[in-house]
Write a structure and sequence with these properties.
- This protein has 178 residues and is mainly beta.
- It has 2 domains: 55 residues, Adenine nucleotide alpha hydrolases-like domains (SH3 type barrels); 79 residues, Beta Barrel (Elongation Factor Tu (Ef-tu), domain 3), CATH 2.40.30.10.
- The chain contains 2 helices and 10 strands; from the N terminus they run H-H-E-E-E-E-E-E-E-E-E-E.
- The strands form 2 sheets. The protein has a 6-stranded antiparallel β-barrel. The protein has a 4-stranded mixed sheet with strand order 2-1-4-3, with no helix packed on it.
- The protein is globular.
- The mean pLDDT is 89.
Length: 178
């Protein structure tokens, strides 16, 4: 398609790839959702891991795990979103070291180039588009779920995002982080 666009001198011929939501013109998905719902999201507490209230958020849809900016909470050291809890409308924040995790569970796993494994296997796993692949041990749980144990803790493993498994350049499969 880029060749086709370039031959016709279209502006998009050299435009970098985008992995944002393509149908949101200004890139502000939170405002898009507010417009579609025609209502403001409910505010709620911002707490630390110990449950101490540090402030009030402006609606959970404005936050994602790993986010640092726009929290509206004063602190001696930078705070990051550690967890988004829709069941209690609570945003959990903490220091950067608290963002690192060694394990995740992936559900709805789709194996692309291999059959679903019946035993643990070593692979590389990528938890987001811009993240580097990291060595991990994959262990089947049940059905189409797998436990991923990283050799080194990973930053901001985010429920709802995809994880993809590799053997070198070959995609083994992937699933949704639980």
């Amino acid at each position: 398609m880029r060749v086709y666009a370039k031959e016709r001198n279209l502006q998009t011929a050299e435009k970098p790839e985008s992995y944002d939501i393509c149908f949101v013109p200004d890139g502000d998905y939170a405002k898009f959702v507010e417009r579609q719902l025609n209502e403001k999201p409910a505010s709620g507490p911002i707490v630390n891991r110990e449950g101490k209230t540090l402030g009030t958020h402006q609606g959970l849809l404005h936050y994602t795990v790993g986010q640092r900016r726009g929290l509206g909470v004063a602190s001696n050291s930078p705070l990051y979103v550690l967890e988004v809890k829709p069941e209690t409308n609570t945003l959990v924040v903490g220091g950067e070291s608290e963002l690192r995790q060694s394990e995740l569970t992936a559900e709805q796993v789709n194996w692309v180039s291999i059959s679903a494994p019946t035993a643990s296997l070593e692979a590389l796993a990528r938890i987001r588009y811009h993240a580097l692949e990291a060595p991990a041990r994959l262990a089947p749980i049940s059905g189409n779920s797998v436990r991923v144990a990283f050799h080194e803790p990973q930053k901001a493993i985010t429920p709802g995002q995809s994880v993809v498994f590799y053997d070198g350049d070959k995609v083994l499969g992937g699933g949704i982080i639980n």
